[in-house]
Fold this protein.
Amino acid sequence: MSLLHEFESVTEPLRLEELFPVTHPAELEIGCGDGGFLLEWATRHPKKNFIGVERLLGRIRKLDKKGRRAELTNLHLLRFEARYLLQYLLPDHAFDAVHIYFPDPWPKDKHRRHRLIGEHFPELARRILLPNGIVHLRTDDPAYFEQMQESFLPAKYFSVTETPVELANVTTEFERQWNEEGKPTLRVSYRLEK
């Protein structure tokens, strides 16, 4: 059975209890790519449920196949545009963590408005996170990293927190590739205050 969710409605919020056979704390990865991080993290944490979001069909089909092969019942996949999903379709106060690793940096000045992590992102994250929930961010792009930090600066309901070592040690395929090319991983985590 596919791990890929078939949307019956794109106006009704998802109900996590309908996606997973067992209710556990939930985490979300936006832009999960081919799933290197998500598969590893879901395997290590069977007492948590995970949702992976990816827009590209080929990538999410590959991840679906790998997740089924690994018999992961705590993983569900969504093929959808992230901003709309965050704003309208994910349930309020449902996630312990949101992971966003190496999002498209849209490096040209005229395209930067397309970046997911911008001035409106902290409020979107606040809506879907539980109190004490954490947003974990990684990039190799210094300009985008600066924008990420600037976006969270006015959001007084978030505070910078340490990225756990176990989490930092689970890398993505892109991350390993860029690290081999000498590009360091820039990471920051933000905790939602109670």
In short: The first strand starts at residue 26 and ends at 30.
